[in-house]
Structures are given as structure tokens and as C-alpha cells.
Amino acid sequence: MSRKNELLLFLRLKMQGMTKRQRAAFKKVKPLRQLYPVALERTYAKEVSQTLKNVVVMALAKLERRLPTWIKSSENAFRNDAADTELEAYLKELEEGITAVFAAGGGIAGAVAYVEQLASRVFQFQQVMFQSQTKVVTGIPLDVDYNWWPEARKLWANENHRLIKSLSQEYITKLNTILSTSFQSGWSYAETVEQIMKLSDTMTGYRARLIARDQVGKLQYAITRHQFESMGMDGYLWVTARDERVRGNPFGKYPKAIPSHWEIDDKICKWADPTIYSEDGRQWLKRTPLMPSVHPGQAIMCRCVASPYWLPIIEEAENLL
Prior knowledge:
Structural class: alpha+beta
Shape: elongated
Number of strands: 7
Number of helices: 10
Radius of gyration: 26 Å
Number of domains: 2
Strand content: 5-15%
Helix content: 55-70%
Largest sheet: 5 strands, antiparallel
């Protein structure tokens, strides 16, 4: 349900006692900058990492007693006899173990329950943020209806549960590739172990962070867009994290990244059309090939956010005086 009329009412009441000069100054009000829930993202990444570490520990424990019999480390050779059959049995046992863990609610303290709690924390973070943003222009911390939220939270939690489980299954697939390559290429015991440890570090490190950042960003995007549009605000300011990791930052780690989120930082955008932008909110331009054609938080691992663009709705309220 739209709360636009309520917002317009508060803006009208606030502007009624203003002089012409005061109204002009009010139109230039700076929005409270939207923040990204980095602490929640990092907490989630640690939880995903720990879940994967549990899978890795289980996999290595089951492999530890088998691998020496498959590879003769002293001769840098592999045993052809029974290795393939034993590997197949090992992978099947590992898959059954992971299935049992998730079926019993293991990993991430009961994965679905945990991610639902995380979703609620992101929601609360964004709710407080939005109330603070509306207070800047109305003097009162307004909020919107969230009838859609319980179902959205459940869907997000289920998707994250699926992603975490699929990451575990991906680990098994890549472990199988390493072991098969080891047998076929005659790797030594030390070489095989080194590759397995590299895989384990990647899955519990970078891949865990990828899921956390990507999913938290997408959830915040969904909540933010609902809040803005429920208040009748189609415009927003694109705000990057403004650090060295921003895509396209000429002084950062990824200066040649395309699309460049740096290129669209602080530009005015529209929820209704992610292919346009404006410098002043009056003239709308087609986004350049360097710019992203999505909203903040939609791209993979995007930490960008949308801050309120108040001018159109303030002018609409002024016209009703």
C-alpha cells in the first residue's frame, strides 16, 4: 500500500510556514546517505564459511585413510587397481553424508532458520535507515507497510539454503576432478594434497564471501526499492561504497572494470528504467556502455546502494499548497 499521500501531507505541513527562500533551501536538502550492512554481510560470510569447513573436515576425514592407499607417494605413482571403484564409493559416501547433515538441520545452525534470522536483521537495519531518511525531510520517522515481507523472507531464506547446499555439492564435484586428474596424471601424494587444500581454501574463503555479499546486496535492494516506491519515489541517487574495491575506480583495484559502477556514482536514477540517468533530475540520458544497466545491489557482489532523491516529491507537495 502506498504511503505517498501521507508523505505529501507531512511535506505540505512542513512547508506551509516557510518563506519562499526557505522553501528554495528545503528543495536542496541533502539526503541521509544510505548505508550498506557490511557487518551483517561479514557475519553471514563467516557462517557460510564455517558450514563449508564442516563439509571439508568431513571430506578430508573420510579421504585421509584412503588416499595413501591410492597413491604411492614414495614412487610418485598411482595404483590402478580398485582406485576408480574406491573413489566412486568415497564420493557416494560423502554425498550421503552432506545430504544427512542438511536434512537434520545441520550446518549454519539449521541453515534455513539462520538465514531467516539474518534476513530479519537486514530488514531491521534497512527499516531504521529508512525511518531516519524520512525524518530528514518530514521531521517524523515515517515507515511503509510490509505485508509482502514474510513471504519474501521465506523465499530468500530458501534460496540461500539452496545456494549453501549447492556450494557443498560443488566442492564434491571439484574434489572428484582433482582426484581423477591425480590418478590419470600420476601426481604424487604431496601434489594431490596441495591441490585439495587449495580447493578447500577457495571454497571456504572466496566462495563463501561471494554468496554472502551477493545475497545481502540483493536483499537490501529489494527492501529499499519497496520502501522508496511505497512512498511514491521513483527516483534515487546511486551511491557506491567509494573505496578501492568499487568497479571502475581509477585509483582502485579494478580501474578497467566494465560495467563501471564508479561512472554512475552520485547520479540520479529511476526505479522504472535502469537504463537511464540524470545529473539534475530534469534531463534524462541513456546510460553509457560503461555504466551498469541494473539497480544498486542487483549485480553480482554489488555493494552499491540507493539513497533517496527528494526533489520531485517535495515539488509535488509544494504545488498542492
